[in-house]
Each structure stands twice: as structure tokens, then as C-alpha cells.
Amino acid sequence: MLNSTWKKLTLAAMLMFVLVVAAACGSDDGGDSDSEGDSEENGEETSGDDSSNVGDGQEIELVYVEWDTEVASTNVVGKVLEDLGYEVELTPLDNAIMWETVASGEADGMVAAWLPGTHGDLYEDHKDSLVDLGANLEGAKIGLVVPEYMEASSIADLTDEADQTITGIEAGAGVVAAAESALEDYDNLSDWSVEPSSSGAMATALGEAIDNEENIIVTGWSPHWKFAEYDLKYLEDPEGSFGGEENIATMVREGLEEDMPNAYKVLDNFAWETADIESVMSAIQGGTDPEEAAANWVEENEDKVSSWTEGVE
């Protein structure tokens, strides 16, 4: 009798143990299912259209010439592509080399083509090996720029100001070439010279001359932060040495659309206004790092950036 009772108790204990284990397993299975459901409802699962994964770590290289406009625009576009998941490299180059690297396919693109005048010769040399995505900024201009306090209002008015020297930027830049052409186009400039330097050196020389109220003539372009910083004017150009209105265009290498269609769409859509680029340039001139200035602008202009990423899949 005792032995029979003991067997019954043992069997009951074993049955209870089995039921407990089964319940625990069922609870775990249900918990995983609920967790997955919660994740889907909260949008925590990564979907195919997650913008941070669009580029999927693909490397893209944008090249630019170190003019204030191009530092600003290239960093802004680079930030937008970086936010889409691309590994972005921004490379400053000499003007001619910038065009060559995109045309040869060594770099993927640039947003720094000044047309039709400033980079006109370079465009003609390489246009058959490039994809022209059109203007990203309209209404640009180049010419000779002087402080407002100078009496001259036209290139034809110049006599012996500033030791008959025009302060230029990098040798080979379109605006420097146009200034050199002006020496031939204007009889009053026959004894003048163009002194190449750099964009930064030109801006420094301009600021120092204005501080001392001295005469200075520089190769200038707009948009540029110097027009907000100083009271300046373009000298009239009756001979047309510097051409008319300029546009800044985007050029990419052949095959980019097939290799990186979403990056291509962003570069194709990229377009902004003078006030946009000047706000970035002013921030950089005020001491903000170009990457930080670009990131701030992108964050503050979501609507415009959204128009650039339209159609990105």
C-alpha cells in the first residue's frame, strides 16, 4: 500500500514538472512573437527605404577648386550624400586638374563649373567625356572689383591706381585669364600687370587695403562673402572682357548614373539660391569649420534638401 502511494506521488510530480516546462516554452515562443510584432509596429526594423542605408557605404568622390563658393557648395552636397549613407571624399584641386579628374572618371563629380565664360575653355576641352547636369546656381558674375571709395567706375577709367597692378587669385583660374585678356582689350591697361596669388591671399590683401583706405583692384566674383563684409563695386566692362552672367553647373563622370543612381539623382536635383550659398560662406568666413557650417545649413533647410533627395529609392 505504501509502495503504491509512493509511485502515485512520484508520477504526479513528474507530470507537474512536464506541464511547467511546456508552459515556460510556450511563454517564450509567444514572447518572441510579441516582440517582433512590437518592433514592426514601432518601425524599429530596418526597411529597404531607410535613407541612412541608401548609399550602403559606397564611396563617392567630389572634387572642387578652393574658392569660397565651391568650398561651401561641395561641403553641403557632400553632407547630404553622407546622410544618405555614402562614404564621401571631398578633394580640393587645381582648376584644370578638377576638370580632368572628372572627365577621366578618376573622380565622380563636381558642383563647381563656372559657365559659359570662366571655365568655358575647360568645358570645351572635356565636354565629350562629361555628363552636364546643368546649373546649380544662376546669376553668378566675375569681373574687376574695387572698394566703393575709389573714383573709378569703369575699367576704362583706370590710370595708375594700385601701382598699376591687379591682384588675382590662382594662376589658371578663369577670372585671372579674363583679367589678362583685359590688359589687351583696354589701351589704358597696356602697362598694367595681373599678379596671381590665391583666393585667401586676395581676400587678405583686399581687407588690408580697405583698412588703410588704399587703392586696390582685385579679380572678383559673386556670390562671395566679401560683398557682405565690405562696401565694394564691380568696375564696368565696356569691352566685355569678363563676359556676361555666369552660372555654376554640376558635372559628373560618365557611368555614374548606372553605378550610383541615387547619388546621381541628388547631384542632378541640386540647386539653390545666392542667399543660401552666401549664408554658408559667411559662417565659414566667421570661423565655423566648413563641415560644421554645411551640416548646420542642411539641418536648417530640410525642405530644400528634401527636393534634392526626391526620387531617391
TrEMBL record:
Residues 1-23 form the signal peptide. It is found in: Cell membrane. It holds the Pfam family OpuAC. Keywords: Cell membrane, Membrane, Signal, Transport. InterPro entries: ABC_Gly_betaine_transp_sub-bd (IPR007210). The keyword Signal applies. Residues 28-55 are annotated as: Disordered. Residues 29-48 have a biased composition (Acidic residues). SUPFAM superfamilies: Periplasmic binding protein-like II. This is Glycine/betaine ABC transporter substrate-binding protein.
